């Protein structure tokens, strides 16, 4: 096998590859994420701030408490309950708060996740919920189906077609191409050829995997376990021709 794989991501040292949100804001024993504002006004530029707490030391987690993971201190991921809207941003710690800008023009119930690594090596992936109001009508929650090939702004990502069974480890391969016939030029994004974030149908499980850097940057292997039956959203993010592409795929997981 030419391309080796790197098992998961930010969450595999102390906790399993799949991270589960209990929705209550304290989805993880040690670390939690809280925001003062729970309802956001829809906009393509929302100033958002939050805090992360170490529940063992009872202290706020600041930028000096964190190591870099995939070139950033905190990875902040946001999506709606219909798994249509998606933000992946990297907050800065300013004036005692983690601050970032979000692009959320569509109303709905949203999940937020913060992922990072404490200085002692403990990785965390914690979630909470938000509402967005005052914008476009929310997407209705529907089954996403199995769509393993999708194009976003000329960059196409295609996944292999194996049957995916709940709770069983699967190796999916992917290939990047261009719909204009030119060759893709895939360069690292945040230290990996691709970042893949998969979300369970109910929005509660987040799986974050990366292929390991291979010789051919336009293809790779992803190693993941999808815990339950249903249609999972997969957002594949990569740099093609120095432009970040976010390609939405979906896979059906069967018993
Ligand atoms: Cu990130």
Assembly form of the protein: single chain
Structural class call reads mainly beta
* Low-pLDDT windows of residues: 1-17, 22-28
Mean pLDDT: 89
Q: What general form does the structure show?
A: globular
Could you walk me through the main structural features you see in this protein, from its secondary elements to its overall organization?
With 255 residues, the chain is mostly beta strands. It folds into two domains: 5-9 and 143-254, Macroglobulin (MG2) domain (Immunoglobulin-like), CATH 2.60.40; 18-133, Macroglobulin (MG2) domain (Immunoglobulin-like), CATH 2.60.40. Helices cover 0% and strands 53% of the residues. The chain contains no helices and 23 strands. The chain has strands at residues 5-6, 18-20, 31-34, 39-41, 43-54, 59-60, 66-67, 75-80, 86-89, 92-94, 97-104, 108-118, 123-133, 149-152, 155-159, 164-165, 169-178, 186-187, 195-199, 205-211, 219-225, 230-240, 243-254. The strands form four sheets. Strands 1, 2, 16, 18, 19, 20, 22 and 23 form an eight-stranded mixed β-sheet that branches. Strand 10 and strand 11 (97-104) form a beta hairpin. The chain is globular. Residues 72, 75, 88, 90, 190 line the site of copper (II) ion.
């Amino acid at each position: 096998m030419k391309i080796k794989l790197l098992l998961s991501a930010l969450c595999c040292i102390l906790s399993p590859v799949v991270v589960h949100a209990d929705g209550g804001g304290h989805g993880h024993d040690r670390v939690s994420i809280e925001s003062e504002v729970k309802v956001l006004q829809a906009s393509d530029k929302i100033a958002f701030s939050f805090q992360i707490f170490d529940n063992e030391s009872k202290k706020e987690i600041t930028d000096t408490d964190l190591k870099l993971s995939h070139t950033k201190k905190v990875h902040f991921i946001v999506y709606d309950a219909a798994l249509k809207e998606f933000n992946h941003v990297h907050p800065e710690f300013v004036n005692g708060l983690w601050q970032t800008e979000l692009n959320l023009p569509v109303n709905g119930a949203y999940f937020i996740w913060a992922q990072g690594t404490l200085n002692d090596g403990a990785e965390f992936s914690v979630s909470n919920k938000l509402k967005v109001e005052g914008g476009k009508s929310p997407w209705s929650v529907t089954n996403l189906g199995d769509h393993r090939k999708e194009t976003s702004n000329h960059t196409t990502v295609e996944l292999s077609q194996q049957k995916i069974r709940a709770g069983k480890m699967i190796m999916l391969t992917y290939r990047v191409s261009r719909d204009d016939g030119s060759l893709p030029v895939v360069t690292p994004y945040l230290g990996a050829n691709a970042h893949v974030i998969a979300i369970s149908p109910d929005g509660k499980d987040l799986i974050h995997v990366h292929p390991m850097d291979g010789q051919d940057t336009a293809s790779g292997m992803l190693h993941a376990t999808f815990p339950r039956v249903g249609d999972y959203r997969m957002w594949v993010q990569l740099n093609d021709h120095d432009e970040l592409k976010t390609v939405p795929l979906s896979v059906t997981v069967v018993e």
